[in-house]
Amino acid sequence: MNRVAENLLHTKLDHAAIRSDFPILARQARHGKNLIYLDNAATTLKPRQVLDAVYDHYAYGASNIHRGVHYLSEEATRLYEGARETVRDFINARETKEIIFTSGTTFAINLVAKSWGRKNISAGDEIVITHMEHHANIVPWQMLREETGCILNIAPINDRGELDMAALESLITPRTKLVSVVYTSNSLGTINPVRDIIRLAKKHGSAVLLDAAQTVAHTKVDVQNLDCDFLVFSGHKLFATSGVGVLYGKRAILEGMPPFMGGGDMIKSVTFEKTTYADLPARLEAGTPAIGGAIGLAAAIGYVRNIGFDSIAAQEKDLLTYATGLVSDIPGLRIIGTAAEKAAILSFIVDGVHPHDMGSLLDAEGVAVRAGHHCTQPLMTRFKIPATTRASFSFYNTRADVDALVAAIKKAIEVFA
Ligand code: PLP
Question: Is the CB of 214 under 6 A from ligand 1?
Fold first, then answer.
């Protein structure tokens, strides 16, 4: 057997076994059609292993963490802090103090803006983002601009949806305090050259935040190797439940960040005159966190690692190539986002069919996709379109799902012909 064949064998997934891990894939969608789930960029499905971990916590172990002295509280604390270690190891952070549990990507970016930003950014300082950011990586910086008078610079993209690196380079100057970029675009699928971006930022002493919401379920991320200052992601896009997410930050930077929220669990001592704060990570995690969510996230990470990123990447690349080839033959269909480095996200528009109508007609065939601006309105404006229809794939999708998508698109087009 040659090396290519060997590799194929190695990365080939047992689809039947994998799909049976996801109970939702056995259910029917509209009109009793089989569910074809292609909305993974919005949220991923949850395998039984995650659901069991969450269920077990609430069914047999429900308890609050840290403050309890009883058995169940100690057990829940162990699981919650164990989940922090699992996340640390997953992204190769140096220590668990660098992992802050949040409610998701949005909260994590807001935490950075409202804590680190308020302390470190003042009038005239510059923040660089890109034209393909999710609103979660635009609005918090606009709010900071309102508060501080800082300047928000937007790095342009080309018609394929790739960053204009020369323009980005010219925007990063000694005045730049933060470069905050999406690692993988949720609307276009573009995978940004984050190593080059980090190198450019470091040249001028700027901090870098990576929005990895669309990355961590698809490829290995190593924060030490990347040398980013912050990295954020959501559990629900990584096969875990909603309500849990992660802010990674370098310890020295997190230690300099004032608490953004005050309350229980983040203090050392409280009197009416003065409060002293707990050490990391508790200092940035006020109140009862998503305990079951964190436990589920650890189970999700275990699940993903068991499958392996080589296999996941091979499967998703095959699906993207296959789908791109098939839809490219459909007259009147235009793919939005054709970057050379691209994740398995297929955004498209079709002449004469509004993306929302396309989404509804696909739904009638059991094909779940997303239609809209995908929380990237400036990006839609850049492409002079109101919205796209977006199919986004995960490793549990198959070529049969792509065939169903393509057949449904063709049927939808006939309705409008
Ligand atoms: N950033 C990107 C690239 C996203 O795709 C999303 C969600 O779609 C977010 C941020 C916001 O994530 P959440 O809503 O989980 O906070």
Answer: yes
Using an 8 Å Cβ cutoff, are 215 and 221 in contact?
yes
Mean predicted lDDT score pLDDT of the chain: 96
Q: What is the pTM of this model?
A: 0.96
Domain count, the chain: 2
Q: Could you give the CA distance from residue 373 to residue 83 in angstroms, rounded to a whole number? A: 34
242 Cα–ligand 1 center, Å: 11
- pLDDT per residue as tens digits for the range 19-52: 999 999 999 999 999 999 999 999 999 999 999 9
Q: Which of 281, 305, 329 is the last residue of a domain?
A: 305
- Tokens representing 376? 């990237």
* Final residue belonging to a domain, choices 305, 323, 346: 305
* 205-218 pLDDT tens trace: 999 999 999 999 99
**pLDDT tens profile 390-415:** 999 999 999 999 999 999 999 999 99
Residues 314 and 297 in one domain: no
372 lines ligand 1 (CB under 6 A): no
Which positions are annotated as active-site residues?
A: 375
341: CA distance to ligand 1 center in Å? Answer: 20
Question: What distance separates the 2 farthest-apart alpha carbons in the chain?
Answer: 74
Q: What is the CATH number of the domain that holds 294?
A: 3.40.640.10
Is the Cβ atom of 182 under 6 angstroms away from ligand 1? yes
Asked if 261 and 363 sit in the same domain, the reply is no
Reported as a single tens digit per residue, the pLDDT across 92-144 is: 999 999 999 999 999 999 999 999 999 999 999 999 999 999 999 999 999 99
Query: Residue 417 has what pLDDT?
Result: 82
* Helix (H) / strand (E) containing 232: strand 230-234
Domain residues for the domain of 362 are 3-47+308-415
Calculate how far, in angstroms, residue 277's C-alpha sits from the geometric centre of ligand 1. Answer: 30
- Quick check: CB of 105 below 6 Å from ligand 1? yes
Instruction: Give Cα separations from 258 to 113, 116, 238, 254, 263 (angstroms).
Output: 11, 7, 29, 8, 13
